[in-house]
Design goal:
Layout lengths: L1 H5 L38 E16 L4 E13 L7 H4 L3 E4 L1 H10 L7 E3 L7 E10 L3 E13 L12 E10 L6 E5 L5 E2 L8 E14 L5 E13 L1 H21 L6 H23 L10 H28 L3 H33 L2
Helix pairs in contact: 4-5, 5-6, 6-7
Length: about 350
């Protein structure tokens, strides 16, 4: 029991906040001076956690984070918070969150504390409230906006990638003293997220234990959901222009003048450079190639090789070996160019999209 009483709230409390005067405040609430025992190893305090994302305000791929407007709910029962409904004239008391903390402290009860594990910015509270029933059951709700880290982003299959988004809530107290259970019916994604680039789906609550702020295993509840891209955008803005450029490169073989071929292929080369810069601007500086990077780099090399090949054909023609140049040219038209691109695309699909 001595060890149990030594484990106190180490000055860090829930990400819950108060609203005064109708103005949002950037702060974490349900905090301040809670220094009483929360549960016991024989009877830990059970806390229900609900996470519902109402809006997605942004998805920043380069910074690997996303902004959200979220509704957090928590509920728990503590007999120490029970009161006589006849004395107060009603069965429910409504508190400002900070007032609930003060009330719990005054009577020797406690409020469970938690942190949003992947929070990156201040949390701006729009609305928040807490209700206390006469039997000691507490219900807390808040609507807030914040920016959250998305460390599980992996762009290897870009733009055919499926990304995983997390919203992680971790208890400040060890699992021996406070345990979490999910409020599935009060969690998930809203119907109007306001996000056009991504198709967000497969939302679920996951419970686990992680090393918390106390340095011991603490309960975690995470809202996990997946996002896929609208491929129509990439088909129209990326793959269709790339197909046109490849077709133009193939059409060059039907020009008899090698000098004109070299000029047009050089223009294509500059277009591929611009493509590469435009696409890389949307992604962080990765230590690996994405699916689209691989295709673009191979197209870049093929276009460069096309210029060198036409220079070689012109040299053969100038040196009087035009017949040899014609044979090589015909071979390139029928086999090298089309089969080369087919091999590039086939390998990219296999290596990036089919192999786990």
């Amino acid at each position: 029991m001595k060890l149990a009483r030594a484990i106190c709230l180490i000055g860090l409390v829930a990400s819950l906040a108060a609203i005064w005067g109708g103005q949002s405040q950037a702060q974490n609430v349900l905090g301040g001076g809670i220094e009483t025992l929360v549960g016991t190893p024989e009877n830990p305090l059970d806390v229900g956690i609900g996470i519902k994302i109402d809006q997605i305000t942004s998805v920043d791929q380069k910074a690997e984070n996303y902004g959200a407007v979220v509704i957090l709910r928590a509920e728990w029962a503590d007999p120490a918070l029970a009161f006589d409904p006849e004395e107060f004239g009603r069965d429910i008391r409504v508190f400002n969150p900070s007032a609930l903390v003060e009330h719990a402290t005054d009577i020797g009860a406690v409020v469970p504390a938690f942190v949003i594990h992947n929070q990156q910015s201040n949390k701006w509270i729009h609305e928040s409230a807490a209700s206390l029933r006469s039997d000691g059951r507490v219900f807390y709700v808040e609507k807030s906006s914040l920016t959250l880290q998305a460390p599980y982003f992996d762009f290897r299959n870009y733009p055919f990638d499926t990304q995983e988004f997390h919203f992680d809530i971790v208890s400040v107290f060890p699992s021996d003293y406070v345990s979490y259970y999910p409020l599935n019916e009060l969690s998930g994604l809203g119907d109007l997220l306001g996000e056009e680039e991504w198709i967000l789906q497969n939302d679920r609550l996951e419970t686990s234990q992680v090393i918390g702020l106390s340095g011991r295993e603490s309960d975690q509840v995470a809202l996990v959901f997946e996002g896929k891209r609208h491929l129509t955008y990439y088909v129209i803005r990326v793959f269709l222009p790339m197909l046109v450029l490849v077709s133009v490169g193939w059409a060059l073989f039907f020009l008899d003048e090698y000098r004109r071929r070299i000029e047009i292929a050089g223009g294509n080369l500059l277009v591929f450079v611009a493509f590469n810069w435009a696409i890389s601007a949307d992604l962080p500086k990765l230590g690996y190639l994405t699916f689209l990077d691989f295709i673009l780099q191979c197209m870049f090399l093929m276009t460069g090789a096309l210029i060198v090949f036409n220079v070689a054909l012109r040299r053969l023609k100038v040196s009087g070996r035009e017949g040899t140049a014609r044979k090589l040219d015909n071979y390139a038209i029928k086999w090298i160019y089309p089969l080369g691109y087919a091999a590039i695309v086939g390998y990219a699909v296999f290596a990036y999209l089919l192999v786990p």
